[in-house]
Each structure stands twice: as C-alpha cells, then as structure tokens.
Amino acid sequence: MKIIVTGSLGNVGKPLTQELVQKGHQVTVISSNAEKTKSIEDLGAVAAIGSLNDLDFLVNTFKDADIVYSMVPPANYFDHSLDLLGYYQKLGNNYAKAIEQNAIKKVINLSTIGGNLNNGNGILLGAHHVENILNNLSADVAITHIRPTEFYYNLLPQIHSAKNNGFIGSNIGKDVVNSWVSPVDIAAAIVDEIENGISGRNVRYVASDELTYTELARILGAAIGKEDLKWVQFTDEEMQNGLVEMGIQPKIAVGLTEMYSAIHTGFLYEDYKANKPKEMGKIQLKDFAKDFANAYNSL
C-alpha cells in the first residue's frame, strides 16, 4: 500500500517507516527539513519536503495514498507567541481537508492519553480537537486514534534536577501509578493496525510499563549511580512557577500543571483504565533507564 507518514523521522516516525518499508509498503515521509531527504531515502522511503501548514502541499502529497498516518509535531513551549490550541486546530483542519480532497478512506491518527477529554487535560486539549476534526470526516473514512500514555523521553528534562538537586519530581505524588510508553512500541502498534486492516472508528491505547513514581525514581537512580534518588511532589503553584522560571510560556505552564495534576488525581487515566491495551509493549522503564543515564552522564 501507499502510506503517508507525517512527523518526519521523529521518535515514532523513524521506527514506523522502517517497519512499513520492511513489510513492502510504499512509504512517503513528510518532513519540513530538506536535510532529512537522504536519511529518509536511505530507509527505502520517498521524501516529501514541505510544511504541514501548507494545505496545497498536503493535498498534492496525499494524492493516491491508501493510508495516512497523521500526527501533530511537538511545538516549542518556550515560544511566548505560540497559540498552542490554534496550532493543533490548524494542522487538524489541514489534515482533514487533504484527506477529504483525495478521498482517502483509511487514517491512523496519533493522539494521546486524555484525547477523549474536552476539559481538565491541560495542553492535551489540542489533541482532543484534532480527534474531533477528523471524526467529522465522512462516515466511510475509517479512523483509528492511537492514544499513547506518557512518553519515557518526557523524563529526560529531569536529569538536571537529578544532577543538581539530588531528586526528581513534579506535582504528582510518589505513590501514583503512571503508565509509560516507548515510541518503538507505538510504531509497532500502528503497524499492527495497518496489517490487520483499518475499519470503522476506533481508539487504541498503547503503553509499555506501569509503575509508581517511587519505583521510577529507584530505577532511574540505580541507572545513574544515585541509589538514594527520590521523587519529590511539588504543589501546583510551585510546579507552575518553576516552569515559568525555566522560560516556558506562562499559559502553557498552566496547561502542563493541569495535565500533571490530572495524572495525580487519576482523572486523565479514567478512560485508559476502562480500555487498557490487551498487551503492554516490549520496552520497559529499565530499558529506557539506559538512555536516561547516557543523557545524565553527558550533561
């Protein structure tokens, strides 16, 4: 099949492209960076260089595609002029229009945990809007929304606190169980959806490991040689102020704080718990801990 992969060769896009090419699919990878062309072609895929903000580019690139894998690339939270919700809505609408104009009938959309919520999910509200925009396409367009739990690599900024303060933390309690995921496992789930056929409207949660923050700190601490590394819970106010002091846009700092608070209360994971994946992914936190240690040691 001819499959469009958005998100360039990112954390999910690269392993996804590799697997799809290996299975004999014709893959076109969209990237805004022309310097990625050779890397994309080296994987056996076709490079389409352009902007997701350019509707005409998307319409032309989606031509004759059997399946579109859509995702909204990470935004720069340090950009104080960024309209985060508007950013999601713009790309969601562009995807929908390009899909509609090319009469594409199969879509896999990378959403997120909390993509089902229209409030209380902080910065994840944008993903909710993208789901709704795509769901408004004609009923004969089959869509699977992939909702991964929290990415392991979201822990990488914690290396600074681990090195400078001797602890890691957020406004989430140490005994809270969170679910984590590897991009490799997300890619595998997407390939599984494609191979098994996409039909109707579906949601698929993807997770790799579940553990408390106390357990998380213990595993990461062992990996960096700090056996006594602890998880410390901040107040919401401390969390928000700390993010602002780092330079993050104040409105986004509010959204991040709300998102973490929803993890703490369990609100963010209610639908996940009711629709948990039948199998967890293969990459556990202890595997990611090696990457955490490499980043820590290079700081």
From TrEMBL:
Residues 7-195 form the NAD(P)-binding domain. InterPro entries: Ergot_Alk_Oxidoreductase, NAD(P)-bd_dom, NAD(P)-bd_dom_sf. Gene3D superfamilies: NAD(P)-binding Rossmann-like Domain, UDP-galactose 4-epimerase, domain 1. It comes from the Bacteria. PANTHER family: PRESTALK A DIFFERENTIATION PROTEIN A (PTHR43162:SF1), PTHR43162. This is NAD(P)H-binding protein. It comes from Flavobacterium flavipigmentatum.
